[in-house]
């Protein structure tokens, strides 16, 4: 009987844990009562509440978004949700949207995506790499529904596309700004918070290093692998350790503005990521943010779906699409206070070329490029292919990479390695 | 010692209710679930939502059509298996709270078989049998460790099983980020098709109504195990011995039952079933090993087993109700509200259970 | 209501499904009175006392203490009203000290315990009432008799004015019982009201002021002890005249069935409990083990049954040495064991009567076959045993915790004897049983012995030892101090040996040394 009571206490404890973990979740997501769905007639029963239940709206083209984090994460998911709101604003007459946030990757994702398709949504956008297989599976089961997966590489011929963009172009410009700043500070050292040793991240870090060398040939780029996209603590710690090692600017490749905050606390500079709000934590310490502006692409995709021209494809946009941004340099923006005067025209000029489509990711990754050990990786005159950039091999319908994105560019500290 | 010397205090006391009517045992869960839903409704109205509408949609999502049932079954499968696992140990008053870790190790071993030990061309029946055995043995081993420590050194199994959860999860993380990783992400490559437990939808060509039902053969495994355990408790010598030990270990020893051996076997079996749950989950649903593939099934299983009062057949019902709560919660946004609701319902059910078993009195002296 | 009673229970009625446990019982006790409560098992004594201690709510009836009406919702209420009970089954935490157990469950324990003061208080109570105990000793290190003292101290510490003592002398030696009676006298002198539940009519007559007899849930008589006789009381309890004599056919000992040779073992404290003990029990004889509690009786039984490790010596059952063999080997060799502690060792309280009866038999046919067991047959056999041993229970599926002490003992005996054992180790088999049940158990043992079973009877009741034993072995400090034939045994000589004194030749002519006796005759 004594032990029985012990078990009871244990059960209560577990229940408490579930309860508190549940409480923690809404705290992370600022109340988003002004959700654009709330005006929809079909959701009237829950209309005045912050609670919503995703449902289709008759007579409209219904698109559901599946998010990996709460929409209030201030980063990746926030940017996608802004894209969704942009879509609603642009096409609200014809399109209705709904979203599901904090959907875990893996088994639950497949179930959630399938249920959305089954509920009658005309299209489902899944916005995390981990949803790739799930999206592919469900796309096969529901040929009449459109699927767009962001940041992966799978597709089919008819109703399933992948979507991603050349953030490396913007990282290149960010590297130029950071290099100029470090040269002016005399530190000659920059840091990069790298989430995972995958081609996407390596590509971005390499682009930043190459850009940095344009404005500061003596600068070195330090790098910390944190193995997470979203961990405020770890991101801060990584930034702190690189400032400790002498960096005067830290660029983050992960989702929270923590590193920018740390920069402010240190009297140094940071460069954020993902969303145009990433500088707001400390504008004085923030040089710029390369950010996603998904809205226009969402609009374009929705239109192609509605007029039937959509076909499964690999969509990889560059700066000329208008879906990529660099805070302080886009139309109607002013460079942040910490950006050195000298580099502003240089960046503006190159950005203009990019927007015109005259300078692309392939221009960045054109030989000669050495790795951080001094070995020649891209010989003079060679240009990396799209597969090289994405480090793809063994994928049906895509050529294999030859100079795969598994090297660190010159400018990154020589003792840095790609972890196994 | 006397009334005069007592300080004036109020305190809450728990006193075990001595005589609980038998009917209450069966009726109480129904009353409690009703009360829990009422409290949840109150919470929902506070947020401004219409609770009836939310509940209706949750029920619709979980049990409204065959797809809902399929999804709920998917969630119920690991809960049943792991719940049966812990209930074996609980019957003997061995508090195995390491089902989560045992589930992870089971999944790990099954993955090892599917990806590294057997060739992808291995016939499905052989592959799946081997994976199930590996999953079971892996979980059994993870339960056996605290079992040995308990039997031989009398180390408290609550501590060891709890701690081994973390070891198991870190062990898994090492492999899925390291040697078994796909592109450095926290997951292994997908299993070959032969290592997938057959799903209903796989027979969609023959039975059209099965199309899109992703529930897998694991549920049959779970039901068979439940049935076997039901027979074991009611009909076998082995089950009888477990119930003697559970009631009075000294009497069991006196009656010639080998306590140490039984502790080790029961802990191993308990872990083995949790391991089987892990195997079923990776082979039937996730089709690969990945980080956090279990949203705490091993812990929820403890609550399920407890509320089912360790009865294998009642456990199926409770597991389905829980699974329904989880599946139904998916439709509510923001996600935190659903989790909060689940937490509140659980809290009321478990707390109410306690109220029924113990009388709470506030005393003033 | 009348003020002259410290306790008044009026028209108490308590029903359980299928039984009327208390039927309009009146019970009163005065301040400074020892009031004995007599009755057979199932007569309703426990129920009445459980009502008084707040464990049960009476369906009807009222309780007055010092003229004030009380309604007890929990044991806590009863304690607060000054009612304390010392149960037959102790409720102590084995891993804690005496002092810790005494304050356990107390309502007003300060957050920071003053260990020394509590120990001093315990010491003071123990001296005041003559209950010697070391407040720092751990419970598991104590003998049953010592544990009982802790229980009594616990109740006194809580300031009880009305003490209920359930079978208190059952666990005591004759000498201890004398000391205990002195304690009771002292408590009576200090104005406590003592309700004394017992089956030992001699004791009841010698200590009690008044006696209440319950039968079938009703109060059949409340009488002054002075002037009552044993047979009168016994017939009041049983409802018919009782014979205080056991017909025992002549002893025809056969081959030795249990041979102990130089057995040594340690007790729970790690001290020597058995010291090179040798003893033989033959087919068809009862060997009684007499001795003061704590001289190795418990260890002797446990060692034989494989429940305690030996530190030397040989145990022979049949032909093999089974010292340190697991219990199952001993069980399979045909040794039945009626353990000292029926609740904690002999039964699984929440399992049914049928299951407890099959606690050993489930392994073998006819109940067990292969992996399975036949529960229907188990129930049928249980029903037969219930009839054969006259066990009062609602049915074979009733959990044994609901049975009274005597019926619990009958369940154990039924189980052990139905296994057709070659040897029976019976430790305190009639402790706490009423007259009818005791008679019953004794007859069962004698029948078994006459059928050729070898029986080792361990008992604190010298009357029982003398009445049943064919030979008597006296245990003193883990050794057999002497063995005397039952018929010629002299009480004084045995008493001396129990006290550790070697009897002189002329007072105990029949004494033999263990070793000469050990040779089969």
Please characterize this protein's 3D structure.
The complex is a heterotrimer of chains A (420), B (365) and C (521). Residues 22-49 of chain A have low confidence and may be disordered. With 420 residues, chain A is α/β, with parallel strands linked by helices. The longest helix of chain A has 27 residues, at 2-28. Chain A has two domains: 52-165 and 294-318, Rossmann fold; 167-289 and 327-390, Rossmann fold (3-Layer(aba) Sandwich). Chain A starts with a helix and ends in a 30-residue tail after the last helix. In chain A, helix 5 packs antiparallel against helix 10 (344-355) and helix 7 (232-244) packs parallel to helix 8 (258-266). In chain A, 37% of the residues lie in helices and 15% in strands. Chain A contains twelve helices and 15 strands. Chain B is mainly alpha-helical. Chain B has a domain at 79-322: Orthogonal Bundle (ABC transporter involved in vitamin B12 uptake, BtuC), CATH 1.10.3470. Chain B has a two-stranded antiparallel sheet. The longest helix of chain B has 30 residues, at 124-153. Chain B is globular and about 55 Å long. The two termini of chain B are 14 Å apart. Chain C is an alpha/beta fold. Chain C folds into two domains: 7-238, P-loop containing nucleotide triphosphate hydrolases (Rossmann fold, 3-Layer(aba) Sandwich); 256-518, P-loop containing nucleotide triphosphate hydrolases (Rossmann fold). Chain C is built from 18 helices and 22 strands. In chain C, the strands form five sheets. A six-stranded mixed sheet of chain C has the order 6-7-8-3-9-10, with helices on both faces. In chain C, a hairpin with a 2-residue loop joins strand 9 and strand 10 (218-224). In chain C, helix 4 (115-128) crosses helix 5 and helix 14 runs parallel beside helix 15. The longest helix of chain C is centred in the middle third of the chain and has 16 residues, at 174-189. Chains A and B meet through helix 1 and helix 3 of A and helix 2, helix 3, helix 10, helix 11 and helix 13 of B.
Concise overview:
The complex is a heterotrimer of chains A (420), B (365) and C (521). Chain A has 420 residues and is α/β, with parallel strands linked by helices.
